Amino acid sequence: IHSNRLEISMARKSSPSFKPKLIGIIFLPPLPGSPGASHLFPSEALQEAGARAVAEAKLLTRNGFEGIILQNEGDGPFLTSQAAAETIAAFSIILAAVREVTPIPLGVHLRKSDPLAALAIASVARANFIVSPAGYGALLARERIRLNASSVFILTQLLYSQLKNEEWMKEEGVEGLILREEGGGEISSQKMKKMNFPLFFEGPLSEPSSQGRILGRELREKGDSSLTINLKKMRTEVKFLKPKLRKVKIKKIKKNKAKNGENRISSP
Questions:
Q1: What is the pLDDT of residues 7-18, one digit of tens each?
Q2: Could you tell me which residues come within 8 angstroms of residue 124 by beta carbon, excluding any fewer than 6 positions away?
Q3: Which of 55, 74, 220, 244 sits at 20 to 30 Å (Cα–Cα) from 64?
């Protein structure tokens, strides 16, 4: 236990900063080897998934998103907790292609629950962060050092019902948190104000929140992850959320400028 805490502490000291507030999810179509791609040659499945990912990455970037998560949603049903070799290979190629068309931070969410493979993909294909379930803090900290991947940030995904106190999260090596569940706006206003790391809500909220947002199904017709992004729905979400997220940034800038004795305030 002491060794795990030491590894996490060392990793936290060198962990990268993470600044995006609005992140969009690209749900990849079935990748090679998955049940949904059984009718395709591996190269055909790769080409189809890659083309959609590149197109949606361009769309999200042009419409004000500050980060993108690539997620192999189309690979379900997930029969094991370890990603297949062909999944890792295809995901890496697609991520590298997306990296070439957008400068904004990219993340890897490799389902089902294989954060070590996600970290490997992120480190070789120049992603900026990964999404991981809880419980992998020490292992990921050690692997990040081994891979010389100190620039890869780790976002831990939890349901609100799984959330414990901040001390527990520090021991787990949490660098950033994704909360999933309705009622997120209430959570942010009452219990999350003092969290000393990036916080994101994924899914519907009962009230507006100034915390970071992750949008996936909300960008698609009927919330269907198999469909491509609906431009009208996306622009509606961005128009609603951007002013709220920007207010937080302006307040932080004003506060920092005041501390430094600077009088001029520039917009973010």
A1: 445 444 445 667
A2: 92
A3: 74
b/e map 133-160, b = 16+ CB within 10 Å: ebebbbbbbbbbeeeebeebbbbbbbee
Q: Is the entire prediction scored with pTM above 0.90?
A: no
Token pair for 91: 């995901």
CA 64 to chain centre: 16
Alpha carbon distance 185, 86 (integer Å): 39
- The whole-angstrom separation of Cα 227 and Cα 209 is 27
Q: Which helix (H) or strand (E) holds 256?
A: helix 231-259
Compute the radius of gyration of the chain from its Cα atoms: 19
Work out whether the CA dihedral 192, 18, 71, 113 comes out positive or negative: negative
- Give the pLDDT confidence of 201-242 residue by residue, as tens digits: 887 665 555 578 999 999 999 999 999 999 999 999 898 887
**Which tokens go with 13?**
């000291």
Q: Cα dihedral sign for 71, 199, 202, 132?
A: positive
Quick check: helix, strand or coil at residue 133? Answer: strand
252 pLDDT exceeds 60?
no
In tens, the pLDDT along 129-173 reads 999 998 898 899 899 999 999 999 999 998 877 777 667 777 777
What phi-psi label fits residue 244: left (phi over 0), alpha (psi between -120 and 50 degrees) or beta? alpha
